[in-house]
Amino acid sequence: MMSLTHHHLLFPCCLLLLLVRLSGASGVSPWQLITPSVPGRLVFPPPPSVPAENATLEYMDPTLPPLLPAHNPKCSLLVLQYNFADTVGAPPVAANYTPPPDCPAPWSRVVLELSASASGLQKDRIAALWLDGAEILPPTTPYPMAPGVFWRVRKDVTRYTALLRGRSPYEGDQPCVLSMMLENSNAKYPGVYSVNVSLHFYRGALCSGGRCIGLKPAGETKRAELGPALSAHPTIKGIYREPADMIIPISNGDGRKGFWFRLENETEVQGTTVRLPNNTYRAVLEVYVSHHGDDEYWYANPLRTNGPEAEGLQPQQGGDNRLESSKANGGFRQVVATVDGRYVGSAIPFPVIYPGSVNPFFWAPVAAIGAYDHPSYDLDLTPFVGHLIDGAPHVFGLAVRDSQPFWLVSANLHVWVDAWSDTVEGALVRYKVPPFRLSRQADWTEREGKSEIEGQVIIRFSGWVSSSKGNITTSVRHKIKFKSHIEAEEKGEMTSVELESKARTNIRIEREDQVIGRVAVETETPLTMATMSSNGGGGSRFHKTKLAHALMETRSVAENKGTSFSAVADRQDSEGAVLMEEGVAMWGNGDTKSVYKYRDDKGCYLRTVNVVGGKVKEDEDTASCAAAAVAES
Ligand SMILES: *[C@@H]1O[C@H](CO)[C@@H](O)[C@H](O)[C@H]1NC(C)=O
Ligand SMILES: *[C@@H]1O[C@H](CO)[C@@H](O)[C@H](O)[C@H]1NC(C)=O
Ligand SMILES: *[C@@H]1O[C@H](CO)[C@@H](O)[C@H](O)[C@H]1NC(C)=O
Ligand SMILES: *[C@@H]1O[C@H](CO)[C@@H](O)[C@H](O)[C@H]1NC(C)=O
Ligand SMILES: *[C@@H]1O[C@H](CO)[C@@H](O)[C@H](O)[C@H]1NC(C)=O
């Protein structure tokens, strides 16, 4: 993925480019060029022709469109419209935002819609959206390998209601500001990204007559009715339960280079000083992270404790930094949040694969999981509220353990305040944070070997907060289990990456020794990737990759007699080959099968998208739980 710094901007492949190159190769058949240098070892079938390029190709993220009421939005607002041409080094684009006067808060749902198109070829770019400095969408752009690519991201942003309400007269009469950054360069490519950002506001029942309707983009006839009511989108379930009263950005207030903090190494902690309202009774920290530069492939980074100074594998000629990161410090990263220097929560980041990573042909036109809307990580800080409301300023910090340059991080502190009292008090009564010890084993000789990082930790804290809602004790138990196995054979030409990461958060809410609520969130994110590489000739490298990746999450909430449950299983299997030259895909092909399954206490949704050689061969969705159950088995 293109970093924010301005370095090599090269053309993605088109057949034309390759043919020109090959025809210059004096009588050598194209396939000989990509035949491995060791005869008789790896033999690849002749690659099929590059998929036909069409000017109206949708790049998509086959997840659940936010389910909406059966009626139209009460109102829709186009907040920002901009053409991002040559924006390197430019500050984010800003637009004033005030909620539509004809449909004031509260809303039963708010959906953000980002629709964008690329005028021509481009690389994938880093982008993000902030509302008053609070990150609300950290997307990546696709890697448009044909002119006229467009895509759309729809995200349930109901949990940002406190920001979307705009400012009250007490808070000054300045409107809120929606900022968007998309650092594009026209140094080599003329490709311009045209972006529209809209908000759709809904009021009233979320579903009518037991049926909901998905947001139907113009011209789309499929995916209309989605069967039984799905009452809530997964993102509002779980730890939030309801939108917060206030959202405090833990971000870089300067904002001229975006509101992220940029972390350059594992020791760096960046953050903001915040003074919380003294009637706060609940707090959740939502953390956003993205990995770039030397850590673009952190999940495939080998660990080398022996060998030449535990250094990274030297990039081969034409290398494209997949197992060749600058430091071979292993495939483990942990995002850690601190308050006044003390650990308050962490997450193993989901290894988002960028549209230009591994094999760009895998992700055209279907995005890798989370690429257009990275997952965020919710940390319940309620046990610390007693400490946070002492009237003193507190430093909220973010760090990424074992990281290399660079990570972009920020967080939103969601705060619930007790309108009925200004004498909330509380205390942390239990804090058990053992160090996350990892066993790290490595055995390498030159370019071959294997390494493993493994560990698990259980963290517990609990605290009480006494407010008009009673004296409530919140106990958090967080378990993380992690394993990374990376292996290279055949002088580094055969590599395999296996990552297993599991997390479970259990929250128990008690009043007067009686349990009044329980929340459980469980995630599992397996990744396996096997690559065979060979010399592609002319300084290029040929990689044949098989990849399986999934994001599985279940959330359950039991509170005040009510219970809710939701489960998402988003899985992709890809296979194909790519010819890389200086980090750029010169030629390739890929098949990707995506299966997205959503189930909650009211219904099911299953979408299967099958892309073969860059063409969508199957795109089916159903609200049948029976079909979802079949897909499960
Ligand atoms: C490109 O798209 C247009 C309109 O959607 C369609 O008519 C045409 O057949 C497509 N061309 C190819 C080569 O797929
Ligand atoms: C943005 O909206 C305008 C209409 O307001 C429309 O003409 C244009 O095609 C839209 N662009 C994208 C990328 O959706
Ligand atoms: C980490 O990065 C920061 C900011 O760039 C720098 O000041 C610090 O010296 C670095 N630390 C190490 C150990 O490299
Ligand atoms: C909380 O803040 C309010 C307004 O700032 C103030 O009036 C009140 O005395 C404070 N309460 C406590 C317990 O500090
Ligand atoms: C709230 O409950 C905790 C634990 O049960 C107790 O230690 C604390 O004193 C109580 N606080 C108030 C204000 O009653």
Automatic annotation (TrEMBL):
The keyword Amino-acid biosynthesis does not apply. Residues 71-432 form the Peptide N-acetyl-beta-D-glucosaminyl asparaginase amidase A N-terminal domain. InterPro entries: PNGase_A, PNGaseA_N. Residues 1-25 form the signal peptide. It comes from the Eukaryota. Residues 306-327 are annotated as: Disordered. Keywords: Signal. The keyword Signal applies. This is Peptide-N4-(N-acetyl-beta- glucosaminyl)asparagine amidase A-like. It comes from Ananas comosus.
